[in-house]
Design brief:
Layout (H helix, E strand, L loop, with lengths): L2 H21 L3 H6 L11 H11 L4 H4 L3 E10 L9 E11 L5 E3 L3 E4 L10 H7 L6 H6 L3 H18 L4 E6 L2 H14 L8 E8 H9 L4 H7 L12 H18 L12 H5 L7
Parallel strand pairs: 1-5, 5-6
Antiparallel strand pairs: 1-2, 2-3, 2-4
Helix pairs in contact: 9-11
């Protein structure tokens, strides 16, 4: 057989075999030749992880089980050991379902000077507090009664939030903590005190970081918060303004991406070492 006739015969056989193979494929595969579909089971673990990431953080998780409480005191001087505590106000900072911080209920008291307390005239002129004012004396409480009432209210909030201890927030916080600790000792209220002995969150530092301001009134103005100088140096008013400022800063300056990380069980157990 001539070579050219043999080549045409082989070509015809190859075409016939190709047509037969295509005819045996499903219609969809015949058109696409190699298209194949697979059923893939959903990755439940990945979906659960994503849901967990979207779940709002609880307050106890944000500050290692510390309940942040804004505190302000008005005093009759600068010496926590000798000068009278005249007013105290406390406002716990809470976290809503959207992850936004907000001031909680206020606990406050006008306090009778303890026996033998020093009353610096310059300090009284600065705060505008008259310890002998009849209207003030009608509502003032002794230190022990005032502190234990406030501590009881804070402990209830702490239990509701499943926190283990309160941490004091203040504008120049160590000043407030010094007078608080001195009053705790004077009234034998150590077992009632919900606050950490020395740890604080200071809004002076936070305001300097956020706004370049250290004065409370100026920091509030920079944050767009109202501040009435006529009401300043009232423990309740200053606490309210400090709480608003603290919440504003936290709500507008989110944590760094790598700030929250899972602690192992040993670290969680070692948390009690902070409670000196």
């Amino acid at each position: 057989m001539p070579f050219n006739m043999l080549a045409r015969l082989i070509k015809a056989i190859e075409l016939d075999m190709t047509d037969q193979n295509i005819a045996t494929l499903p219609e969809k595969d015949a058109l696409n030749h190699t298209e194949t579909t697979y059923d893939v089971a959903p990755n439940t673990a990945t979906e659960n992880d994503a849901a967990a990431e979207q779940a709002p953080m609880r307050l106890k998780e944000r500050f290692r089980k510390f309940l942040p409480v804004v505190v302000d005191v008005e005093t009759a001087g600068f010496n926590a050991q000798t000068d009278a505590l005249l007013e105290i106000a406390c406002i716990p900072v809470l976290l809503d379902e959207h992850g936004m911080f907000y001031p909680g209920e206020a606990f406050n008291a006008h306090v009778e000077p303890f026996e033998g307390a020093n009353l610096e005239p310059s300090a009284l002129a600065f705060t505008g507090i008259d310890p002998n004012n009849p209207m003030r004396k009608a509502i003032a409480e002794d230190e022990k009664t005032a502190l234990r009432r406030i501590f009881k209210g804070l402990k209830e909030v702490r239990r509701e939030e499943d926190c283990r201890q309160c941490v004091l927030i203040g504008h120049n916080a160590h000043f407030d903590l010094a007078f608080l600790n001195a009053a705790v000792i004077r009234t034998n209220s150590k077992s009632h005190n919900p606050f950490h002995n020395f740890s604080v969150f200071d809004t002076v530092t936070l305001s300097a970081l956020a706004f370049g301001q250290t004065v409370l009134a100026r920091a509030c103005k920079a944050a767009g918060l109202d501040f009435d100088g006529k009401n300043a140096h009232s423990a309740l008013y200053d606490t309210q303004k400090t709480a608003e400022l603290f919440c504003y800063i936290l709500n507008h300056y989110p944590m760094l991406a790598n700030a929250m990380h899972a602690e192992d069980d040993k670290e969680a157990l070692d948390d009690d070492s902070d409670r000196k």
